[in-house]
Design brief:
Length: 343
């Protein structure tokens, strides 16, 4: 009797261990490429990882910092990463220039409005877009504001060629404006504003023109996925978005607490600065009227179609990708689950 009981216990323990092993081995690996360094806006991704939200969805997610949207898109296209975070307009450009290349799609829009903005010196008598005529602007060649300048100019009755551009290293952009070497720059709102303040310029010295407030309907950054991976593992993409959506809701409710997850990943960050950066990203690009109305993550098809057309024209692309190639809603959580904005 004792040997039988022991044998049953042994078999039960062995079976339990085997089931546990099978569950662990069944976890889907996802390498995820951010667009930039571990800064405030990366908080919901890092929170979802550290709080175990991805793990609860049966995912083993590795999150790497990045060096720009183009790099994130190219790495997902190459197969080195299954998913990433990048500018939807850069994705339009990639698809137009690689019509027969690997399929990549946006699956969750995080920045409902483009964070691109013009920052101009008030002491150069710049108060409106029209005042930029005859002025000198600076930006890196890959900057969204620079690439989409024609869209901004057309929306504000300004001749796109009425300004002179200097293409500069990202590290020099704000310094040139602070020194007065240029009249204005373009950059992400939550990046350039903080960089200018760190160089001694206050908002009172600046005229700031966020693209969404000046007639530019472009979407910003989105979670992107390899079509091959998504077709082979649709449940994994759905699970990733559920976990991220959950963490984004908690980030919106408590940005200060969310920064802890960025600090845990990079102990050298300036917590106060990155908290402000996150709040600026939320206020300027994430918590928008459209997102509140339709839920985080989604797109308006008519708006996306128009945005693609504008980008194709401004970037002089060889073709205009269909909206269905650029973004799919099939993996999104239900709308009710995406109504995550605090009252």
């Amino acid at each position: 009797m004792h040997r039988t009981t022991s044998r049953c216990l042994f078999l039960g323990t062995t079976l339990g261990a085997a089931l546990l092993s099978a569950t662990v081995s069944a976890a889907t690996d996802i390498r995820f490429q951010l667009d930039w360094r571990f800064e405030g806006p990366s908080a919901p991704f890092l929170m979802a990882a550290e709080r175990g939200y991805f793990e609860e969805e049966g995912l083993n997610v590795e999150i790497d910092s990045g060096s720009g949207s183009a790099g994130a898109i190219n790495r997902v296209a190459s197969g080195a990463y299954q998913m990433g975070f990048g500018d939807l307009n850069a994705l339009v450009e990639f698809l137009a220039e690689n019509p027969d290349g690997p399929g990549i799609q946006g699956v969750y829009v995080v920045y409902d409005g483009s964070p691109a903005a013009v920052f101009a010196r008030k002491d150069r008598d710049i108060e409106t877009p029209a005042d930029l005529a005859g002025k000198t602007l600076a930006a890196p060649a890959f900057d969204t504001g620079y690439r989409a300048w024609g869209i901004f100019a057309n929306a504000n009755d300004l001749d796109a060629d009425a300004v002179t551009w200097q293409n500069v290293d990202p590290a020099l952009r704000e310094t040139l404006l602070e020194r007065g070497d240029v009249d204005a720059i373009t950059g992400f709102y939550f990046t350039s504003l903080l960089n200018l303040e760190s160089r001694g310029m206050s908002e009172d010295e600046l005229t700031i023109m966020p693209f969404p407030e000046y007639g530019v309907p472009l979407y910003g950054n989105a979670i992107i996925a390899s079509e091959t991976f998504a077709e082979e593992s649709p449940e994994a993409v759905e699970g990733f978005l559920r976990a991220f959506n959950r963490a984004l809701g908690e980030t919106l409710a408590d940005p200060e607490g969310a920064i802890d997850y960025v600090r845990n990943r990079d102990g050298l960050i300036d917590v106060e600065l990155e908290t402000r950066r996150l709040k600026l990203a939320i206020e300027g690009a994430i918590d928008t009227e459209d997102a509140r109305a339709h839920g985080a993550g989604a797109i308006d098809e008519a708006r996306l179609t128009e945005s693609i057309r504008l980008v194709a024209e401004a970037y002089d692309l060889p073709e205009v990708p269909d909206a269905e190639r650029v973004f799919t809603s099939r993996y999104l959580p239900d709308q009710d689950a995406r109504m995550i904005f605090p009252e």
